[in-house]
Amino acid sequence: MSETHTDTHDHPHSPYPAWTNWLFTTDAKKIGMIYMIMAFVYFFVGGICAGGIRIQLATPTMNFVDGVTYNGLVSMHGTVMIFLWVMPFIAGIINFVMPLQIGARDMAFPRLNAMGLWLFNAGALVLMATFFLGMPQAGWTSYAPLSILDKKEIGMDLWILGIQLLGISSIMSGLNFIVTILRLRAPGMTMFRMPLFVWSSLVVGWLMILAMPAIAVTLTEVMLERHFGFTFFGPAHGGDPILYQHLFWFFGHPEVYILIMPAFGIISEIIPVFSRKPIFGYKLMAWSMILIAFLSFLLWAHHMFASGMDPRLTLPFMILTMIIGVPTGVKMFNWMATMWRGKIYLDTPMIYALGFLITFAIGGFGGIILASIPIDLHITNTYFVVGHMHYVLFGGSVMAIFAAVYFWFPKMTGYKLDEKLGIWHFVFTFIGSNLTFLPMHWLGMLGMPRRVMTYDAIYASDNLMATIGGLIMGAAQLILVWNWIVTLRKKERCEENPWRSKGLEWTHASSPPRPDNFEEIPTVTTDPYDYGLPAPPKAAKENAPKDKKEAKAHG
Amino acid sequence: MADSKPHYTHLGHSNPWPFVASLGMMIGVFGILFIEYKNPVGWMFITIGVGLFLIAIFSWLTTMIREDVSEATEHTVPEFPSIGKWMVGFLILSEVFLFGALFATYFYLRNHDQVYTQSLLHFYEVKGEVFQIWGLVPILNTIFLVSSSVTVHFAEEALRHGKIKVFQILMAITVVLGALFVGGQALEYFNFSVHEGFTPQVSTFGGSFYTLTTLHGMHVLAGVIVLTSLLVGSFFQGLSAKRHVALTVASIYWHFVDVIWIVLVAVIYLRLI
């Protein structure tokens, strides 16, 4: 190894001035940090949109915002939360953790990685411009008749161009994840010794490179139709709006799994650590993620049962949708079996993981209900769908993201987040989110349509409950911000491995890790989750690196 | 595996060009937006954006070549000999889905038309007649592109055996053939739209024909630019018998562009399916 890199100086032989350290960085950890920080900024932007929607819906005929603003808030809430909150957070956490977990010094293509980061930021700024120039009206799906009707609507164009930039960014990240995982693993790290978070990153990479091209094509076609007189979707000249839905959901459904797959990985990392037990059914966990990813490309049309598509096609899509519940169920049971008779430590990350199991299970059940055509025809486009989707995305992805924040914060900064504040954050988030999204299920069953700004008085009490829940949930996030401020000001360094994890990122890298990750690339000799075998783990500081070195010497 | 430990020491941890290239793309995007709203300021934005982007990409590539030359002997080459190849492999997979979405559009719209008219051929009608697009230009273009795939293959072989002169001649032929293809396509577009009245706006067939062929043509153009820069680089020791990863990657990509063209000819021009 080259001598120049043994110093832990932040920017070895950088010819550029110091203020460019973060701007010009190609270090996956710094790139990951920028992704995550920006993701949280946009989380609050999306949250403010959600607040506007919920306040408007607090009573049946509230006049908090006008119709155009309301449509804009609905569109931007969905767009921001999906493309500017969960997606970049995923990219960030994978960038930070994955190279450490596979024992690599960086991603395979660090500069492409930086390009992906700045394209994300460019796309995000284009989307933010809609708040000043006019918000898109067509929802985050931008279905074709809506998105091509008003050709003078600047928000729609900004939306399209912004999403195009984000799409290119995601393809770049996806390519990088795949090649890094397949080619840059440390000696001894075979495919089936990879931590499950790495497996989830690999699967996400595949989903990104295969799903994103579809949205790029679709939005280009919308653009050509809006401004250059082409016809694809407009029925007046022989186009077909249903084509838009097919193309969009061919992207959109794998996209849903892009959002949830890393959550599976994060939960699979956390539960074994805090149960002090190896993960139950490791290989099955990896294979179930691969199966879910494969199936996710084959069931896009379950979003379109009521669209007037060829009815002969709907049955296979329903069956495939129900089949995807099987590998997902396998994962749920394996997580529970991992905890079974384990020595469970209820630290904040674990509490979030438990919260995830509950809320994600409810979301999953909602999905099975929606998959069945006879029921779906009645409750599609009602609040039931909104409730289901938020249980999966908030109760699934976001819960896992919070778990990841508490779990890897000591790795990123060297400081451990305050446990008490963390638990209060969880309590209010959990109560708030259930109070918001649970009533939506029966509101939908009763027939309240989604995307409306006023509604019949019979839905009033449940909507008020949802609004109160939403405000509690929003306020709870301030506890997280407070926790960051308190922790970063206290500057109390925690142990190197506060959770006594056996992941390479904890045992072989310092907190925060040096620019090239490892002093020496580790050689892997064990499976990823060897907890409680054969002897109980020793205290963190003396143990881990030595353990592995000894194992290496003996093996 | 044990003694080939991965490292990245040659990369450093700072590079301004990804940032500048993205900035250029963002400015360009705002330029497109202005043009859509008929604001001439858009052209200025596009010029600045594209300019920044090109400067960034050019500097990015020259930095890479410089590092390659100065550090190649130490560790850049033997460490991960195939990440470039893996990368282009997955990129091609992604591109297959990109073209796939456009082909799906084409087939869907054709079958949709059939519902109303009971005739597949109605889809191809321009001004009341079935429009034939197969002709001299696509035949010549097919010859150009297929033979350029052959020449780039032998150029690679020549480089592998250290015959740098043969390599340069074959590469020059490849680049010229690629450029001829792009020229041929421009000529075809001109004929169709000006003389025959077959514009993208005329029907759903027009829209899907022009989007598919333009996307493919842009890929050819990108390939020509990459191959040209490799050819130019070879005069400045950019490539050698031992270091031809960039050329291997470019030639895999070039073969892929060729294959897509053959599919395009079979499906769109000859209407075999």
Q: Could you explain how this protein is built, in words?
A:
The complex is a heterodimer of chains A (555) and B (273). With 555 residues, chain A is mainly alpha-helical. Chain A has one domain (30-554): Cytochrome C Oxidase, Chain A, CATH 1.20.210. Chain A is 68% helix and 0% strand. Chain A contains 16 helices and no strands. Chain A has helices spanning 28-56, 67-102, 110-133, 144-149, 154-183, 196-227, 241-275, 282-296, 311-339, 348-371, 373-379, 383-413, 419-446, 460-490, 504-507, 540-554. The longest helix of chain A has 36 residues, at 67-102. Residues 1-11 and 536-555 of chain A have low confidence and may be disordered. Chain B is mostly helical and 273 residues long. Chain B folds into 2 domains: 1-80, Helix Hairpins (Orthogonal Bundle); 82-269, Four Helix Bundle (Hemerythrin (Met), subunit A) (Up-down Bundle), CATH 1.20.120.80. Chain B contains 7 helices and 2 strands. A two-stranded antiparallel ribbon of chain B has the order 1-2. In chain B, a hairpin with a 2-residue loop joins strand 1 (125-126) and strand 2 (129-130). The longest helix of chain B is centred in the N-terminal third of the chain and has 39 residues, at 41-79. At the A-B interface, helix 3, helix 5, helix 6 and helix 7 of A face helix 1, helix 3 and helix 6 of B.
